[in-house]
Amino acid sequence: MDSFFSRYRNALVLTIVLLAQVIGLAVQVRRPGQAPGDKGGVRLIRAWVVGIVSPPERVLHATGRGIRSVWMNYFDLVHVRQQDQRLKAQLDQLRLEEASLAEDAKQGQRLQALLGFEEKYVYKTVAAQVIGSSGTEQSHVLFIDKGSKDGIAPDMAVITPDGIVGKTRDVFGHTSQVLEISDATSGAGVLLQQTRIQGVLRGNSWGQPEMINVSPDDRIKKGEPVVTSGGDSIYPRGLPVGTVDRVSPDPDGTLVNVLIKPAANLAKLEEVLVITSSGSEMPASMQQDLSEAQQRASDILAERLPSRTDPNAPPAGANGQPQTTQAADGPNALPTPPPKPPAPLHPDRYSSSSMLPATDLVPGQRLTVAEGSAGSQSPAVSPNSVPRKTAPESAHHANASAAADGGSASAAKKTVPNAGDADHSGETGAAHPKPKAEPANPEANPASEKPSSPADTPPNPGAPSNSPQGRH
Amino acid sequence: MALMASSRHEVGGYSYPAAVYVLVPLLALGLQSLLGLHFAFFGLADLPLLVTIYYGLAKREPISATLAGSIIGIAQDALTHHPLGVFGISKAVVGYMAASLGVRVDAESHGTRVLVVFGFTLLQTAVLYLLQRHMLGQPYAWHWVHELIRAVLNALIGVILFALLDLSRRPE
């Protein structure tokens, strides 16, 4: 027996080592539905290895960063002034765009609140340096220099300003492991921005992210942006993911996989942001930024627009437009003023400059359209003439008197004087009337002030109306 | 090119300072993790594998090479999100075979080293494929050209690395 063990000692040791590791692998493999995360012993081994390997990486990374910083900040400063001027001009342009987008954002919030969508806003992020990787092609993970002591927890979204990177997986004291979206075991809910096709994103075996099991659709084109859908409860909705690279057929043949070119450069990551807190309410800082952006945009516009008392400007014609038709070319030419609409032949209360300022309007007050007020600068609508009723309220009254078989819309038109262009509300029935010709100030019309108020819900003919006009 | 060991000197093993046994694998793991972040092609290289092969060829003791391969492989697994043991098993096999082969071939020759590293890189890839694809059920991309490039790159890096590690050895 001794001779057997001594003769096959090497092979026996190899067999025992392999068997032990195979058993260890079998123990670690998770069944579907099992909670993610490593068990105690495995986690301990990972923590030891990461604890040993990451400090030298951190030092090397900091050293390289310092050398690069010295070079960038003290030597490589050629063309910085020109770049600064170009960036300032670009910043002005972006502020203008931001102001216009702010209105869309507010409108989007109102509509989302109306439809019950829950938008997630990023409240707090932690910036982290990428200090290492797994070092193998089979595992697309990164190591960052922030851990549980910095508020990081597993399954937090990791992003860059360009797009999403992945999510945190194992979190240690001062180091965290980030599973990239290019890994085959990752997963993220994504959405094609134009075609609104939803899917699950994961990495293929070659390390490229792809939307799997998508129904074939001819509308999916190369270059279409892909954003997060928010359905995975990890990535906030609307973050950029990348663009469509190509569509490849699924091995089964019935579905397709959409290969994505990631927006974030996953091959060269240095700094990332970990989203540690998010919620459904827009943070106060973002609201302030929006209002400030609008203010700044108005200042920029005021600087860019020509002066009102331009001595070189041609005399204005009767309709307010300059009489000259010569093209303003040359380096000193002033920008062309925005065209004004011609004066209406038969003005009504929807005509430009025919409405009183919103602050002067009183709910329920009658307004009158003065005939022959075309071109006049004074308001042509006088109070106490036309009953100011919005289509929803009219439809509400119409519902009370007309049959519910679609006649409510026509009844609404009959109820509202001059409601000729409020016909869109009648097309969808009285259930979702769209208020037309709202005053600029919502306070002037309490019924349309709160979109989620009962005035926006399908009216109940039997229910008493709470609107001011309803009580008249 | 002398493939077979022809003298007792060639068959005899070498010893290394104790610090080398600890620091070199750790350095290999750290460099692999760090350089893979900045150089995409470095994902093809496998420094821990090269260290395992070198120890196997130099020590020529299958048991110690098996254990060294297991420990280095498990440490490499710890840096991934895979279960511990995938690289551990593959490097244990490679270490054992490298030590067994080191007794029979002249491991001092650069040509031999190139061929040995080339072959063991392919062997490790085959074991990894077997484990990940058929045992763990995870996707594993296999492309012959890719794997051949990986093996050639590791063989070239191995020649340089082995020459550097030779500087720290002393005859037993």
- Percent of sequence in beta strands of chain A: 15-25%
Poorly predicted parts of chain A: 320-333, 371-472
Give me the strand/helix succession of chain A: HHHHEEEEEEEEEEEEHEEHHH
Structural shape of chain A: elongated
Quaternary organisation of the protein chains = heterodimer
What is the radius of gyration of chain B computed over CA atoms, rounded to a whole number of angstroms?
15 Å
Task: Give the topology, please.
The complex is a heterodimer of chains A (472) and B (172).
Chain A: H1 2-7, H2 9-28, H3 40-75, H4 80-115, E1 121-133, E2 141-144, E3 157-159, E4 164-171, E5 176-180, E6 188-192, E7 198-203, E8 209-214, E9 225-228, E10 240-249, E11 256-262, E12 271-279, H5 284-304, E13 366-369, E14 381-387, H6 391-401, H7 407-415, H8 423-427
Antiparallel strand pairs in A: 1-2, 1-12, 2-5, 3-4, 3-12, 4-5, 6-7, 6-9, 7-8, 8-11, 9-10, 10-11, 13-14
Helix pairs in contact in A: 4-5, 6-7
Chain B: H1 8-11, E1 14-15, H2 18-38, H3 47-59, H4 62-78, H5 86-102, H6 110-135, H7 144-166, E2 170-171
Antiparallel strand pairs in B: 1-2
Helix pairs in contact in B: 2-3, 3-4, 3-5, 3-7, 4-5, 5-6, 6-7
Provide a brief overview of the structure.
Chain A is an alpha+beta fold and 472 residues long. Chain A has helices spanning 2-7, 9-28, 40-75, 80-115, 284-304, 391-401, 407-415, 423-427; strands at 121-133, 141-144, 157-159, 164-171, 176-180, 188-192, 198-203, 209-214, 225-228, 240-249, 256-262, 271-279, 366-369, 381-387. The longest helix of chain A is centred in the first third of the chain and has 36 residues, at 40-75.
